[in-house]
């Protein structure tokens, strides 16, 4: 069976859903911290870094982000699309995606598997499920 690769529109929708979800979680975390007195800055910073820097890589490696789940797309290994990428691949992929922003998607139209630059770097591919 030939894999079904998502369109750019679906990938952007997924990213927007994840961004909104992270903003909501950050708001809730801020509210939670305001309930407690004298939360050290190190704890606040660690929580926000873990949320922003860990949400997508961890969810991607162990299943799917909320955006991936709702748009029915998944990140998989290029060599075997039945397997999820590992945590190292996920942590390689994510900073490149964040650093390049929308430019990361420039390679999609030139690639038969619609792989973005961060997919090329991590050995991953997005598929529809």
Spell out the blueprint of helices and strands.
Elements: H1 8-35, H2 41-62, H3 66-71, E1 73-77, H4 87-100, H5 117-122, E2 124-128
Antiparallel strand pairs: 1-2
Helix pairs in contact: 1-2, 2-4
What can you tell me about this protein's structure?
With 129 residues, the protein is mostly helical. It has one domain (8-128). It has helices spanning 8-35, 41-62, 66-71, 87-100, 117-122; strands spanning 73-77, 124-128. It is a multi-pass membrane protein.
Descriptive tags:
2 strands, transmembrane helix, 5 helices, membrane, mainly alpha, transmembrane, RDD family protein, elongated
Low-confidence stretches: none
Mean pLDDT: 93
Strand order of the largest sheet: 1-2
The count of helical stretches stands at 5
Order of helices and strands: HHHEHHE
The profile of the biggest β sheet is: 2 strands, antiparallel
Shape: elongated
Which class do the helix and strand fractions yield? mainly alpha
Radius of gyration (Å)? 16 Å
Total separate domains:
1
User: How helix-rich are the residues, as a percent range?
Assistant: 55-70%
Number of E-type strands? 2
Task: Assess the beta-strand content as a share of residues.
Answer: 5-15%
The N- and C-terminal alpha carbons lie at a distance of 13 Å
Protein name: RDD family protein
InterPro entries: RDD
Pfam families: RDD (PF06271)
Domain RDD: 5-123
């Amino acid at each position: 069976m030939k894999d079904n690769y998502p369109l750019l529109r679906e990938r952007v929708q997924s990213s927007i859903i994840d961004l909104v979800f992270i903003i909501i979680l950050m708001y809730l975390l801020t509210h939670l911290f305001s309930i407690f007195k004298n939360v050290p800055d190190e704890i606040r910073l660690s929580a926000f870094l873990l949320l922003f820097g860990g949400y997508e890589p961890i969810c991607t490696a162990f299943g799917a982000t909320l955006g991936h789940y709702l748009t029915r797309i998944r990140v998989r290994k290029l060599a075997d699309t039945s397997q999820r990428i590992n945590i190292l691949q996920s942590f390689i992929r994510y900073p490149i995606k964040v650093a390049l922003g929308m430019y990361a998607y420039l390679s999609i139209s030139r690639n038969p598997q619609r792989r973005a630059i961060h997919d090329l770097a991590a050995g991953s591919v997005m598929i529809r499920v």
